[in-house]
Amino acid sequence: MTDEPQDEGRPDQVDDLSGLADLTAAEASAFLTSVTEVASGSSPETALPLMTLALSQVLVAGARLGAIQDVVPEERFEPDAADDDADPLRTGLANVFVGIDDYVYVIDPITSSDRADGSITNDLVDVAVSLSHGLKHYAAGRRLEALWWWQFGYLSNWGDRGMTALRSLHSILAHLRLDADEEAVGEAEFDALHP
After folding, report:
1. CA 98 to chain centre
2. Which domain, by its residues, includes 56?
3. Is position 99 within any domain?
4. Which has the higher per-residue pLDDT, 57 or 43?
5. What's the mean pLDDT in 178-184?
């Protein structure tokens, strides 16, 4: 046994959290860039794989936050950060995902089998708004508040919304790639074997 003090409040712990805040901010920014690009509708052919990748990456950031001890801000009062108007993002995503936006999910697979209707668009906007809120604290130099927000939001909202959206996007991609017409597949195999 050593006589070293607990980790709480040690400078190296603050440095570790600062590094984690920097990493999470970069990952949140990358997600927001991707979701904004998809919502612009400029490349509808890449929307599904791009959002699948972006969600996967930001969920890794969330899982990292969920795996550490609770982040406790220095102040017990968090200054309000006004959320941006998410309607343009919501409208753009709804246009991109028209016809494939809605899905059904199990609300809480641990406590019940109740189902609810979901929307990929609404999920992506929820994730974006929550990450953006944390980024505002980060940009204002309040790294611990940003980490607290991202961690709390991941565990209470955006992690779940992101995972259900990712599951839906994966399902759509799987159907697109695997539910091919047998005749077309047969012709493609024949053409590949007999050039």
Report:
1. 20
2. 11-75+86-193
3. yes
4. 57
5. 69
